[in-house]
Amino acid sequence: MTESDLRITETFSASCGQAERPLRADAQRNRERVIEAARAAFAESDSVPLEHIAREAGVGIGTLYRNFPNRESLLEAVYAAELISVTTNAEDLLARYAPEQALRAWMARYAEFIAAKRGLLPALKAGSPTGRRTNTRERIVAAIDTIAAAGVSSGVFRSDVDSDDIATLLQGAFFSTTRDDGPDRVARLLDLIVDALLTGEQ
Questions:
Q1: 3-state SS of the chain: helix, strand, coil percent to 5?
Q2: With respect to CATH, is domain 3-197 assigned 3.30.360.10?
Q3: Is 40 exposed, middle or buried (0-12, 13-18, 19+ CB in 10 A)?
Q4: Which residues pair with 198 in a beta bridge?
Q5: pTM assigned to the model
Q6: Domain residues of the chain, as ranges?
C-alpha cells in the first residue's frame, strides 16, 4: 500500500465514521501486511482462519486482533482497500499509457477486484455490523469515465458508448465466468470490450 493509498484509506475510514488517531509507523506497517495477506487469502476463500492470515503477514494473532477485532472488520478493511485501489488509479494509468492501453490495464485491475469481491461479499452480507455504503458502482463508473473521456477526446474511442454501458459490459464478462474458466477467457472478453470501443481511426 502506497502513501497515497494510505491517505485515501484514512479519508475513507473517516467518511465511514471510523476516524482514529494515526498509528505508529511500525503498527501501520503491521496493519498493511495483515490487509495484504487477507486480500490474497480471501480471494481464495472467506473462511480462511485468521491465524493463517496472521502467519502469512508475519505478525502474531494478538497484533491482528488489535487492528481487527473480528473477521467482519478485516473483511471490510480488505474490501475498502481493494475498492480504493481500483478506483483511484485511472489518472496514473493515463499518464503512462495511451487511452486504449490504459483502459485495458485498468480492466485487468478491476478483474482482480472482482475476484476479491466474490470471496468477500457473502461474508460481508452475512456478518457486517456497519451497514456501510461504499457507492461501489458510482466509483467504478467514475474511474472508467476518466479514461473513456480521454479516449473520446483523442478520437480513439467511440463517443456513443457511455461509461455506465462499459461497466455493465464488464460485469457481464466477469459474472458470466467462473474461477474454473481461468484468466485467459476473461482476458479475451476484456480485449473484445476494448476492441468494441475503438473508432478504428487510431
A1: 75, 0, 25
A2: no
A3: middle
A4: 157
A5: 0.75
A6: 3-197
